[in-house]
Structures are given as structure tokens and as C-alpha cells.
Amino acid sequence: MLFRRRKPQKLSEKLREALWPRKGPLRPLRYFQKRIVRLTASPHAIAAGFTAGILVSWTPFIGVHIIMAFVLAYVVGGNLVAAALGCLAAGNPLTYPFIWAITWEIGRVILGMDGSTHSNGIDLPALFKRLDLSQLWDPILKPMLIGAVPPAVISGLIVYGITYYGVRGFQARRKAKLLDRARERMTLATESAPSV
User: Which residues form the DUF2062 domain (predicted)?
Assistant: First the structure.
């Protein structure tokens, strides 16, 4: 194997690395941030695409989040790679339980549902086995869809603003740095040129 360790890790080292990575727990987040700001598109396109990914992650339709994000990003003129990154950032196995609980509770409050309306319980495995979405719609999907609107709008506005200004600032600093390098090369080239 090409990148195998010479000395294999012990079990204790593997556990320590899994719980607290050597480079720190925030390194993946910093990499993710750098990946977003380094996309080659306008600040609006990157921010709109990333926001589209965040917005669709609030919906309960797990299998089609990226497709929905691509469609939404295309409609608003967003970057498709940023949309996929937005889906991956917001919708992942660590965040889905919180998203579902929040959207379901908000939807229940908006719809005025109380806890006693469905006191007999729902047999989710049986409903999924029969694919009976009509019985799944009222108690679960409808409150989750309606409850997804307020947090999606709030998080979308915040994420768009942060991403837009962050990308715009990064691109301005990068452009200024490239212009400085070009000026330095021009001055070196004119100084080293033989005079006639």
C-alpha cells in the first residue's frame, strides 16, 4: 500500500485520534470554509448556492436534498458545487435528528396541533413497508414541511449574508495580493532589462 504507516497504530492511539484528532477538531471546519471561499464564481453565486443547500436541508426529503439544492441553486443563479457543500454542511447524520425535532415542533405549533391528537401512536416501520404516505402526511410530513419554513428563512438570510461578505472579502484580498505580485514582477523585469 502506498501511504501505509511503517509502524501500525496501537488501539489506544486509534481511539485517541478518533476522539481528539492530532490536528485539532476544528481542522475539518477550516478546510470546509476554505473550500467554499476558494470557489471560482461571483460572491452572489457562491452565497446563493451554499444557501440553497442549507435551505433544502431543513426539509424532510432526505434522498433528494442535493437534487433539490441543484434545482434551487440553478433557479437563483447559484453555484452548484456550493449547493452540494451547503447540503453536506447542514444535512448530515449529526444534524438530522435536531432538524427533524425542531421542524416537527415548530410545525405542530403553527398548525395548532396538540399532543393528544395522535395519542394512539404511529407505526413507522409498517407505514414505510407498505409505502403508505397518505397516513404519514398528516402526523409527520405536513408539520415538518410547514415547520421547516421559519428556520430555513432565518438561517438562509444569515448564511447568505455571512457567505457573501466572506467570499467578497476573500476575493478582494486575493485580487490585491495577485496585483502586488504582478507589480513586483514588472518592476524586476524592467530593472533587469538591458538599457539600449
Answer: 26-175
